[in-house]
Amino acid sequence: MTSERREGAPLKRERIREHLLDLIDSLDVGATIPSERQLCETLGVSRPTVRSAVDGLVRDGFLVRRHGAGMFVAEPKIVQELGPDNSARLAPGTVGGAWSTRTLEFTRTSAGARIGRRLRVSPADPVLHITRLRLVDAAPVAVDALCVPARLVPGLQPGDLQQHSFYELLADRYGIEVDTAEQSIEPTVTDEEESALLLVPVHSPALLFERVTEDAEGTVVEFTRSVYRGDRYRILTRLRLADRGLCRSDTSGGALSGEWSATDRYLAQD
């Protein structure tokens, strides 16, 4: 029996993964890592075991494969922590690197039925439609479509949003303090226009954020739809499980409605 079989493939893959993560930490973005063959020789393991570990690191966004060129250290993901203590300022685009904004579209038009419902205004009311490209360290990471009731922001210009955050402008220029927001996050894929702007293939994995923000009086001040590159963005949530009674009383997933079930392989509440 070989040493690899005695140790077990899962343990071997984990050891290779840790070795590669240490190597990645010591290299710059875009640096080449050893080939699978070289890793097999260095670590004394089989090619399928190395490939399985590397596949996991590619899938998790630590490495990128380029056909015919090899494997390279990937750009680090932007991490945003979500939680009940985070303010509205912690919207996507406020964490993880040097952010900048490029205004692509700035138009004034009637709200229409769909946007009117989101903003709680008449379909005939004027709104500003603002499309922005969000960049981190000069690399595009998101396409951001912002809709604002025009009456709230008289005199707003396209360049304003490239110099200041929207919430800063609301507070400093218009005296509007954002108070609450409802935000949804779901997986999606990029369409042709989004792909061209984000420099990714069509139908690349992405995260879709939709956000409705209100001021202290309950007036809706924005509806935002943002598409973030799935290979560059990660959401982190910290959960407090200190209420032992709550943990014991509900093993069905708790925060979500519907029927939950578990098998001996997969636990729904994980």
UniProtKB/TrEMBL annotation:
One of its GO terms (biological process) is negative regulation of DNA-templated transcription. GO terms for molecular function: DNA binding; DNA-binding transcription factor activity. InterPro entries: Bact_HTH_transcr_reg (IPR050679), Chorismate_lyase_/UTRA_dom_sf (IPR028978), Tscrpt_reg_HTH_GntR (IPR000524), UTRA (IPR011663), WH-like_DNA-bd_sf (IPR036388), WH_DNA-bd_sf (IPR036390). Keywords: DNA-binding, Transcription, Transcription regulation. The keyword Nucleotide-binding does not apply. Residues 6-76 form the HTH gntR-type domain. The keyword DNA-binding applies. SMART domains: HTH_GNTR, UTRA. Transmembrane segments: none annotated. This is GntR family transcriptional regulator. The lineage of its organism: Bacteria, Bacillati, Actinomycetota, Actinomycetes, Catenulisporales.
